[in-house]
Amino acid sequence: MFLALHEMSRARVRFGMLIGAVGLLVFLILTQQAIEGGLITGFVGALRQQSAPVLVYSVDGQRTLQGSVINPGLEAKIRGVNGVAQAGWIGQSTFTVRVGGATESDAALIGYQHPGLGDPSRLSAGRRPVGPAEAVGSAADFAIGSKVRIVASGPAAPTAPVFTVVGLAKDAQIQVTPTLFVPWAGYEAAVKAANPDATIVLPSVIAVRPVPGVADTELVDRINAASADADALTRAQAASDTPGVAQVQQSFQLIFLLYGLVVPLVTGLFFLIITFQKAAALTLLRAIGARSSALVRSLLIQVVLVVGGGIVIGIALFAPLTLVSLGAITIRFDPGAVLFWSVGLLVLGVASALVAARRVLAIDPLEATTGGGGL
Amino acid sequence: MTLVESIDTARNALEMRGITKIYTVADDVVVALDHVDLTVASDEIVALVGPSGSGKTTLCSIAGGLLSPTDGSVVVAGKEISDYSGRQLTEFRRDSVGFVFQTVNLIPFLTARENLLVVDEIGRRLGRVARDRADQLLEELGLADRAANLPAQLSGGQKQRVAIGRALMNDPSLVLFDEPTSALDSNLGDQVVHLIRNEMKARGTAAIIVTHDDRITHYADRTVHIEDGRIAK
Ligand SMILES: Nc1ncnc2c1ncn2[C@@H]1O[C@H](COP(=O)(O)OP(=O)(O)OP(=O)(O)O)[C@@H](O)[C@H]1O
Ligand SMILES: [Mg+2]
To answer: Please, what sign has the CA dihedral across residues A338, A340, A345, A346?
Structure first.
């Protein structure tokens, strides 16, 4: 401790700059991590928040709600699969809407046939709809009491439905669009108002709940086996297999991999350089009886202080950012991610100092007699 | 070893018997020390004089446990160290000898006082006692008002005095000074050697002072000449 702390206090600028650099990198990592989380939540949050444990798409639908259509024949096959306790329709379309007196904007409507099979699992405020003209809205976009009018043209315009937001659900957007969960009758009315030629409104997917004792994955397998046109997915799969999600995750993972290289590279090189620079002092210490393990310990104490200090600075910069919203994307302070990166960067930092530690272990105290002290 | 002999041994700070050191670099063989016998009594100051390359530093390195001899026995304060392992030698250097080296002697990022305290920090960790000892040494060496200075803020003579204090911090049985005055002008060198003698005699500590400079030798109790790795009789 003595050597480690005294050296740092005598070279405050140098160590301060390194701690600052690590802090900035930690800040960038945490921010990118939060942006990734916010982006994916914006894309598929509604799928994660909805209450049906299993969703069955049509194979043609390419695992998107908008692309998938379930015809009555396929629906009958799904309902007939052994292990299905309950099945219901879920429909999704995007509409032009007017919220209150505001200008026109887009909103996604998710219609569900049965409460508990496609409506949000949890509300962050308000209550669930009791009539077809009531809705639960994505919390980032709507307020309780908001009136959302479907914009329609032609003869249907006067009868276009107006939804009243009675409840809110967090992280419940689909396709980064303001999203409303409405009972099926309301959804059907909206589709018919926007598209007067529609005679019947088909569901996009079938929401299914297994009987007790049958696992979600087991039911998924059975449904997929029952029909070549059915593409059954668990709730989590439906979110992660939505086109684009995996690509976004891969891109971010590449970025994180680069950070995972840059941080230990910066700390590793720094400590290697200062180990070279103070080689004469380290040689002297070994010559007067310091154990090499004590010198390595002093090095590791500095690494932990530098990376730890950087993490504290990074979190301090990141935390206020989570209080604001970046456009449509919500930045969340995720303690799990912060802990993961803190521990991970500490481990990487210590590992990066091993090269410097090897140099310390290789010091020959005899060189103090010649004043060499070169490593 | 008889009882009389072992008491004798304990009385001596250093006993070297038949010390040979051979360096082999590539195919070249350098005999740096050739059957050296040297005894330093427990409170004796020995000046070691000889031309460059004669083996003075090599001798000190072996006496101080920095280097193991190719052959022969080294007993420091009653301890036979020639067979010590690396770890045992580290402990020996930490607890039993003091060094003032030819060139680098101070840790640049520690103040004068901390350069003394670091000895306690890597060693016995006496805390309060060590701090008192450091302050006393700095006082004796005329450095009380320079205690908080970094080495870069000290003159050559002051640095050398801090190094002497550092070498005495662990209360050693033997202090090895390798050309302690080579970087100083003769006047300052004279002062420093004077100081060394006072400190050694006040503590009854043995010392070997390596020097080229014959003027310094009158501060020593005895002068030993070395040439081509052999002690001149
Ligand atoms: N590590 C080494 N490897 C090979 N040869 C060495 C080594 N150290 C010293 N020598 C050789 O051993 C001999 C004695 O060297 P030493 O350093 O003991 O001399 P010295 O009397 O201290 O000289 P100086 O007064 O110049 O300091 C020299 O010939 C030197 O070249
Ligand atoms: Mg020498």
So the answer is: positive
Question: Confidence class of residue B216 from pLDDT cuts 50, 70 and 90?
Answer: confident
In this structure, chain B runs to a length of 233
pLDDT computed for residue A372 by the predictor: 58
Separation in Å, CA A149 to CA A92, A99, A172, A193, B169: 17, 6, 20, 11, 87
Ligand nearest to the CA of B36: 1
The H or E element spanning position A107 is strand A104-112
- Please say whether the beta carbons of A271 and A303 come within 8 A: yes
Residue burial A203-227, b: 16+ Cβ < 10 Å; e: rest: bbbbbbbbeeeeebeebbebbbebb
Cβ-defined contact of B101 to A368 (cutoff 8 Å): yes
Kindly state the tokens that stand for B115: 């350069």
Q: Which residues of B touch A (CB under 8 A)?
A: 57, 60-61, 66-67, 87, 90-95, 99, 101-110, 114, 117-119, 121-123, 150, 166, 170, 178
Report whether residue B109 contacts ligand 1, using a CB cutoff of 6 Å.
no
Residues 6+ apart with CB under 8 A from A253: none
Burial class (CB in 10 A: 0-12, 13-18, 19+), A119: buried
Q: How many CA atoms lie within 13 A of B227 on its CB side?
A: 3
Q: What residues of B are in contact with residue A371 (Cβ under 8 Å)?
A: 101-104
Cα dist. A135→A43, A181, A182 in Å?
A: 20, 6, 5
The pLDDT, as a whole number, for residue A198 is: 82
User: pTM for this structure?
Assistant: 0.85
Are B122 and A6 inside 8 Å of each other by CB?
Answer: no
Judge contact between B209 and B196, C-beta under 8 A. yes
State which amino acid sits at residue B20: T
Give per-residue burial for A312-346: e unless 16+ CB within 10 Å, then b.
Answer: ebbbebbeeebeeeeeebbbeeeeebbeebbeebb
Q: How far apart are CA A47 and CA A138, in angstroms?
A: 12
How many Å apart are CA B21 and CA B1, to the nearest integer?
Answer: 25
Q: How is residue A294 annotated by DSSP?
A: H
> What ipTM goes with this model?
0.92
> Distance of CA A271 to CAs A14, A26, A334, A348, B88, Å?
11, 19, 31, 13, 29
Give dist(CA A124, CA A168) in Å, integer. Answer: 6
Which sequence spans correspond to the domains of chain A? 2-43+245-370, 46-239
